[in-house]
Fold this protein.
Amino acid sequence: MKTILGLDIGTTAVKAILVSSEGKILDEVSAPHNLISLKTGWAEENANDWWNNSVDTVKRLKDRNPDAFAKIACIGVTGMVPAIVMLDGNGEPIRNTIQQNDARPIEQIEEISKKVDQEKLFALTGGYTNQQHVLPRMLWVKQNEPEVFAKMRHVLGSYDYIVYKLTGVFSIEMNWAVESGIFDIRKKEWLTDQMEQFDFDPAWFPKVGESMAVVGEVSANAAKITGLAAGIPVIAGSADHVASTLSAGITKPGDLLIKFGGAGDILYCTDEIKTSPKLFFDYHIVPDHYLVNGCMAASGSLVKWYLGDILGNYGGEALKELDMEASKLPPASDGLVILPYFLGEKTPIFDPQARGMMFGLTLSHTKAHIFRACLEAVIYGFKHHIDTIKEMGFEPEHIFATNGGSRSKFWCQIAADVLGKEVRAYPSHPGSALGVAFLAGVSVGVFTDWEQIHLFLTDSRTYTPNPDAVKVYEKSYRVYRKLYEETKESCRDLATLYD
């Protein structure tokens, strides 16, 4: 038996997983770290916390599984994308990382949008300049922290940084580059002219590697720190949402994944490069396959807000009772529709000034109605993305669900009813760490067929749509779609109320 180590550099924790060549998860551990938000809209983290947590989780796996740990054949690292880690000439971080959901570079987005031909940019990268792109956030550092910017010599992503700490090799994985906004997705090369236009040195950005390419080996120094054996191959890795897609068994065109995380991800697998101004684009881990995808700013975080901030940390038996009450209510919550734009919205509207809304409230509505409407709002957002995917000429054939909400039978049934299609949920899905571990296994021949990922997917539930509920949701969804269009100007007025 051989084993594979997978590391996931997440927003709130580092997760480590050890899997076997026989298709079993042997062990998994995690270590938490903090998001740093010094000002409204800022999202930063300390890259050294990621490394320290990686060391901690690896050591714990070794202590708990000494025999299996000694048989590690390869290591894969996944993480948030495109987080930005800026390093000096010694490979040390020069400031906190700037996360992918950081919303500070509003002025820089406007500046770049005026200087860079946006239609040409879309043709090359599959997207227009937005807050998730690397250039606006780095330009903010240049303009606001010039003494820090002057120290910059290398730029990496979250998982690229851990790969560097393990191997001593600077590398960038394909999908960090794809999502950076400064990379030609067809020619697979950096857009150096755009970097130079803003006085960025192209040499800061390492060579881009395919996800499963081995970029180095565990160095003697890293081996001493982590307890790993020196010389273990380390692959380029994967964006977390892409790795999670693989670990949900999404390997064929027509497969679609909905992820019930704090944010909501929607990923559709295709075998052709096709982009939309309303969605993101990524290379799939599976060769010659691609992912058309979107991200809702608030998904599970909307439900958490309602249960926590509004109801006062509603949980345990109280939550079970609320869940039961909400399940007895009719579809569409007796005429209550919620817009889930409580953090603005990314895809498919790209509007940071969008606002959440509860529409149709009456004195007969209860906390259970609002709870159910929150769950429905997230699925309406998923359906909006699926409609956008259909506008591109694609037709989802199979829908899979993962992450926290996939453990709720009630929420998954709402998903089947709103989407009008069978949904298969994986309630105990281990996520991105498994995906990148499997990828590392494929890289060194431990796994020889992509379908072997299904060896790990033994816990699933299937939900079939209720025809009567489908009809009601079709009507309420039309109201949902109209609400934003009819109120977006008012949302902009509210966003500038105190300017």
